[in-house]
Amino acid sequence: MSLIERIEKQINDLSEFTSTPGKGTTRLTYSKEDLLTRNYIKNKMMEYGLTVQEDGFGNIFGKLEGTLKDAPSVMVGSHFDSVPNGGAYDGPAGVIVALEVAALFAENQLTPKYPLEIIALIEEEGARFGGGLMGSRGIVGTLSEESFKNLRDEEGITTIEAMSKIGLDPTLPKRRNPNNIKAFLELHIEQGPILEEKNIPIGVVEAIVGLTQFEVTIEGKAGHAGTTPMDRRTDALVAAAQIISQLPGFAIEEGEGTVITTGRLNVLPNGANVIPNKVVFSVDIRSSKEKILTMSSSG
Ligand SMILES: [Zn+2]
Predict the structure, then answer these.
(1) CA of 299 to the centre of ligand 1 (A)
(2) 3-197 topology per CATH
């Protein structure tokens, strides 16, 4: 089997661990499907000569020691949970490719300079416990023990209860010392149309966009649609429409992937024959430029 076939096969293997067969991949954190996937990944890690460890969140690490003693690790990997009825590639592609990196070291009997750690992260999607990025937030210490313990799924099951059910140990070490991490590399599928449309096989992420959301309230003056002359109106919706129609232009002007969306609009009193006296609309801005996000959220 060629390397490509091997990667394809393993991604397909993982897609079988789903609670919705025939309807995409559904793999919630700490579920039966999580356990099956976990065992598959751990077995591959051992097969490729890695030392396997799990942390107190259930993240999986497979380590290949380097020639440098006590050096920080180069981590390669992604997440292995999935949204309900998700695709086969979101997450697993990054985990499997990372495993194959380790396999290449083993097959060619190479020892890296820095330790190589293959990592498979839990609950990136937040589909069971909400919030998302739980595994990676846990590792870097931005998810406190307290808030981790208090998370519950839709049925009221806590993280700790769910972990115990599949034999995971929440008392294992959680936070990683950042000095022990040299780099982190993640391969991930494209979730927009750009690369695929241009037939570019791979893109390198230059920045993770920041996100800000806020509401704009426009106050006008109510009046009867039939009896208020046009030059006497303070129509909140007309004002809002003028502002909203300019937002796409701002985004295009800023460039570098800046996007602005208004997706929610509340018009008051929302009657067909009443001039609107109040409009509240949402603005969602995503940009790789911090300046744009902080400027907008401070008004
Ligand atoms: Zn993903």
Answers:
(1) 32
(2) Aminopeptidase (3.40.630)
Average pLDDT of each block of 10 consecutive residues along the chain (299 residues)? 94 97 97 98 98 98 96 98 96 98 96 98 95 93 94 96 98 94 96 93 89 94 96 97 97 90 96 97 91 66
Query: Looking at the DSSP assignment, which residues form a beta bridge with residue 268?
Result: 278
The CA 149 to ligand 1 mean position distance, Å, reads 24
Cα 135 to ligand 1 centroid, rounded to whole Å: 12
Task: For residue 254, give the amino acid letter.
Answer: E
Domain residue ranges of the chain, discontinuous segments joined by +: 3-197, 210-297
The CATH number, out of the four listed (3.40.50.720, 1.10.10.10, 3.40.190.10, 3.30.70.360), of the domain defined by the range 210-297:
3.30.70.360
What is the amino acid identity at position 246? Q
161 CA distance to ligand 1 middle (Å): 25
Query: How many Å lie between the centroid of ligand 1 and the Cα of residue 84?
Result: 13
Residue 209 is classified by DSSP as P
Helix (H) or strand (E) holding 63: strand 60-64
